[in-house]
Amino acid sequence: MAGTKYEILDPETGWLDPSIYTDQEIYRREMTHIFGRAWLLIGHDSLIPNPGDFFHTYMGEDPVILSRGSDGSVNVLLNMCRHRGARLVRADDGNCNSFVCSYHAWTYGLDGELEYVPGEQEVYYGELDRSKLGLKRARVATYAGLVFATWAEDAPSLEDYLGDARWYLDMEFNRSGKGTYAVGPHKWIQPINWKTAVDNCSDWYHVPVSHASAANAMFRVLGEPRFTHDRLFQMKGRAAFVNGHQVQYFKMPEDSLAGQSKSIPTATAEDDTAEAVERLGEFRAKSVVLGTHSLFPNTVLGFRLAIPRGPLKTEFWHFALASNADTPEQQREVLRVHTARNGVTGHFEADDVDNWRQVSESGLSGTYRELGQRVNLGIGHTHTDDVFPGALSDRFVSENNHRHFYRRWEEFMNADSWADIPLDPQKATYEGTAGMNE
Amino acid sequence: MVVVTVIDRDTQSEVFAPTASAKSAQELWTELNAFYIAEAWLLDERKLHEWLDMFTEDLLYFMPRRKNVPSREADREIPPYGTDLPFFDEDRKMMLVRIQRMDSGMAWAEEPPSRTRHLVGNLVVQRVEEDGTVHAKTAFLCHRSHAEYDTALYSGYREDVLHPVDGTWKISRRTIVLDVNVVLDKNMAIFF
Ligand code: FES
Ligand SMILES: [Fe+2]
């Protein structure tokens, strides 16, 4: 609908319109204006190591095939036959030479080219132009093994899309030249709007409450630190906001990590500092530690995806990323912790979903729509810095991210094309040898 | 007397042939069936600490993912232990974390708690080892009702390794395989 302008967040008061979670028209527009335009995290290099490998994944509601061509190239193809729309791939993953449609056997190469049509001469009278009927291809780009895709021809490069957020993300994803590998995912259906899972990613305000039972049991059984309000309110930790992405970080040595238990741990090898300094420079390697993070629009905490399935339905994918630099024992421990805490069975995550669901469903109440939600925690308290890029918050507990995320949402929803979507200026200085893909 | 004979998937050998000294196949089957029925009642009556006592100290509680793969690649359908990101990969301490948190009244996934009904059947004794260790397989249906109108139906099978201890059985290794690819439930804080 040209002309519709969404103003769903009051930046002065933090008022938020709950109908963004339930309105069917808004949801339809999100599919084109956000999921049709943004760079979406859809997979990982390690899921398709060999020529002919494929992995079935999603760009928003669109099923796509992530495939490795015979020349090693990475393809992202809409998994819908150009004839009538039947699916080419029905398995989660596998290896093949071509994709054969199970309806009438149109056959496509690993790169999506339409290679064979039964009866091309006999029943199509030799009049079919196969060259125009390849599978729809998305633009694809990778960062440190993570595979992103976009449908938008006019989108900026992935590097510009991530912007200065990469300066922080490098601390976890780009620390070692050996890279990471992805395992999983858990897949399950949550009765929530996808946005509530993403904005919650930086919501440490809820942790002492929502996760009290798990944290207390882990304190008693495993000696892990408790999450109390006091502790979290005192905890030094910061957040940076860039292009709708959110990264929490600790600035060492000022921000003590003592007693800190990261939600997604990486069992980074103890002796990685020399390599990290070479790759990231002395300052970043030693002074910046990454905490939780989300990428606009739907990547949560490392490698977890909130895939929209309707206003009040989200398919959640929970992968674990392990470092190739770690020992097998460290890798096992990382996977075990990923299994225990998060994912459909995670004793942390299990306690989140009913909250997100109720937040989502508040948009169904006309009475509550009049009231609106309040994301005003820490309002007016962001600043900039010469060294640390992005809009910064120096409180661990804040809703700066919620406001940043929903403002970015407005920018996408109100834009006619990428030309109307601003990017934060890039100011970060990258010391060291690590690049987008080195 | 019913003699239960099953071909072991791994060894392709006949795996249960009762010896003169061992319990009869029928006795063993009846005893294990009663054990599993008692277990299901503990779960449904939320006696989770008593339920955990049915496991050994060195327990492994394992639930792999279930993948969509072509039938000719069926060996990839259930990722073996240690190769993947399973739903559960728990030792006793982690099970204790999961159960202790239910005692707090703040385990929101189960507060108010789910109403569950576990139906366990299709018991097959797969193998009896020299020392009395038993390998048994059961199928289950579990219905979960939560809060006002949330429901989920789980179906699957379990493979257990059981040891005779003090006149009863203790499970040292439980593998639970759900008949589902994308889990159709908002969270999974119940046990099988
Ligand atoms: S729909 Fe694919 S060949 Fe007809
Ligand atoms: Fe949470």
Automatic annotation (TrEMBL), chain A:
Keywords, alphabetical: 2Fe-2S, Dioxygenase, Iron, Iron-sulfur, Metal-binding, NAD, Oxidoreductase
GO MF annotation terms: 2 iron, 2 sulfur cluster binding; dioxygenase activity; iron ion binding; monooxygenase activity; oxidoreductase activity, acting on paired donors, with incorporation or reduction of molecular oxygen
Residues of the Rieske domain: 39-149
Keyword Metal-binding: yes
Residue ranges that the Swiss-Prot or TrEMBL entry lists as coiled coil: none
Keyword flag Hydrolase: no
PROSITE patterns in the cross-refs: RIESKE (PS51296), RING_HYDROXYL_ALPHA (PS00570)
InterPro entries according to UniProt: ARHD_Rieske_2Fe_2S, Rieske_2Fe-2S, Rieske_2Fe-2S_sf, Ring_hydroxy_dOase_asu_C_dom, Rng_hydr_dOase-A
Family: Belongs to the bacterial ring-hydroxylating dioxygenase alpha subunit family.
Name listed for the protein in its UniProt record: 3-phenylpropionate/trans-cinnamate dioxygenase alpha subunit
Organism per entry: Pseudonocardia oroxyli
UniProt lineage: Bacteria, Bacillati, Actinomycetota, Actinomycetes, Pseudonocardiales
From TrEMBL, chain B:
Keywords of this entry: Dioxygenase, Oxidoreductase
GO biological-process terms attached to the record: 3-phenylpropionate catabolic process
GO molecular function (one): dioxygenase activity
SUPFAM superfamilies: NTF2-like
Signal peptide: none
Family of the protein in this entry: Belongs to the bacterial ring-hydroxylating dioxygenase beta subunit family.
Stated name of the protein: 3-phenylpropionate/cinnamic acid dioxygenase, small subunit
Species this protein is from: Pseudonocardia oroxyli
